[in-house]
Design brief:
Low-confidence stretches: none
CATH class: Alpha Beta
Strand order of the largest sheet: 7-4-3-2-8-11-13-14
Helix content: 25-40%
Number of helices: 5
Structural class: alpha/beta
Number of domains: 1
CATH superfamily: NagB/RpiA/CoA transferase-like
Largest sheet: 8 strands, mixed
Order of helices and strands: EHHHEHEEEEEEEEHEEEE
Number of strands: 14
CATH topology: Rossmann fold
Radius of gyration: 17 Å
Length: 209
């Protein structure tokens, strides 16, 4: 299935495109939720073996993770490895002032998480890290294509948070999407506000942006 571009499209086309994306989101979320617990565990282990041994992961000092939900591939093994090597690990926190941007709060073992906006677990205590100061961001996604275009939930939090990467020469943070291979779709068009990813890592492949 293909999602059309929203760049320079008339209002009627934009509505149709949004509807197409909603259908696509529903289908891809169904795919990942259909994975059995064993398949999820195996996928998480393969993801760890692909990314955890990479120089990018080993040399990143401040890494943003997410808590897997709704069938997402689980980065927990990577999180534990990062902690064991003394890296600073962060989780996203919804902005309390209504902005569609994320804050990143440091998480350490034993620290409890509370449900925030959209029922997403997040730390309420801990030091905040500006998005610009992160080394590596492991991003969730709903769907992706071979060109590393990402389909999110449609709220735009990550695109708004890292919009500065579209207009600067900064090389950090590196944005990597994490996904099950079954979340791959034929093609996703790039919108003007989309922030490019450096790559997408699945349980089977590493796609380079």
């Amino acid at each position: 299935m293909t999602a059309a571009s929203t760049n320079n499209a008339p209002a009627s086309s934009i509505t149709e495109i949004q509807q197409q994306k909603q259908v696509l989101r529903k289908e891809v979320r169904r795919r990942r939720r259909s994975l059995t617990p064993r398949q999820q565990q195996q996928a998480a282990l393969r993801l760890f073996r692909k990314l955890g041994t990479s120089s990018l992961f080993r040399f990143s000092k401040r890494i943003a993770f997410t808590v897997a939900r709704d069938g997402e591939i689980d980065p927990k093994l990577l999180l534990h490895a990062a902690l064991s090597h003394g890296k600073a690990c962060y989780l996203p926190v919804m902005n309390r002032f209504g902005e569609s941007k994320l804050c990143f709060r440091r998480w350490q073992p034993g620290q409890k998480l509370a449900k925030g906006s959209y029922a997403i677990p997040e730390p309420r205590l801990g030091r905040l890290c500006p998005a610009r100061s992160l080394s590596l961001v492991l991003m969730p996604l709903v769907g992706f294509d071979a060109n590393c275009n990402r389909l999110g939930m449609g709220k735009g939090f990550y695109d708004h948070t890292f919009a500065f990467l579209r207009t600067s020469q900064r090389q950090r943070p590196v944005l990597l999407g994490l996904a099950h291979e079954c979340q791959k779709v034929e093609r996703l068009e790039v919108a003007s506000w989309d922030v490019p990813l450096r790559g997408i890592v699945t349980d089977q492949h590493w796609y380079r942006g």
